[in-house]
Amino acid sequence: MKPQIIGVPGLPPANATYSQASALGDLVFVSGQLGIDPATGHLAEGGIQAQTRQAIENIITILAACGTSLDRVAKVTLFLADFSLLAEANQIYAQYFTHRPAKTGVGIDQLWGGALIEIEVIASRT
């Protein structure tokens, strides 16, 4: 079985090395999403909470294009350019992920374009 490559018009495009998402059977793998506002093409203004909210909204759009939704997310990985901001990111995260999927938080040196957070998920379509 080959993965189905998924691109979602209107969201920040993936570059030539990856796809916004891929599906393999009933599983959907969403590439790391930054808090880029699709309307402006820039990071959401307002710090970690605004970027977290926008990244999750982008994920919701991608999941919908894949025929699934946030409540079917089984695994989340958060990449933070400043790990001390995890508590603030979690305030927004908890508003969306009420079913408490498995989650990993990783502190890293930097993210593209000065982003504060990048979020990737794995979800089921069934």
Q: How would you explain this protein's 3D organization?
A:
The chain has 126 residues and is of the alpha+beta class. It has a single domain (4-124), classed as RutC-like (60s Ribosomal Protein L30, Chain: A, 2-Layer Sandwich), CATH 3.30.1330.40. It contains 2 helices and 8 strands, in the order βββββαβαββ. The protein has helices at 47-65, 86-96; strands at 4-6, 21-24, 27-34, 36-37, 42-43, 73-80, 102-107, 117-124. The strands form 2 sheets. A 6-stranded mixed β-sheet has the order 1-2-3-8-6-7, covered by helices on one side. The chain has a two-stranded antiparallel ribbon with strand order 4-5. Helix 1 (47-65) packs parallel to helix 2. The model has no long low-confidence stretch (mean pLDDT 95).
Describe the secondary-structure layout.
Blueprint: E1 4-6, E2 21-24, E3 27-34, E4 36-37, E5 42-43, H1 47-65, E6 73-80, H2 86-96, E7 102-107, E8 117-124
State the main characteristics:
126 residues, alpha+beta, 60s Ribosomal Protein L30, Chain: A, six-stranded mixed β-sheet, two-stranded antiparallel sheet, 33% strand, globular
Q: Could you give a short description of this structure?
A:
By secondary structure, the chain is of the alpha+beta class. It has helices at 47-65, 86-96; strands at 4-6, 21-24, 27-34, 36-37, 42-43, 73-80, 102-107, 117-124. The protein has a six-stranded mixed sheet, covered by helices on one side.
Query: What's the end-to-end separation, in Å?
Result: 18 Å
Q: Report the portion of residues in β strands.
A: 25-35%
Question: H/E element string?
Answer: EEEEEHEHEE
CATH superfamily: RutC-like
Estimate the mean pLDDT confidence: 95
Give start-end ranges of low-pLDDT stretches.
none
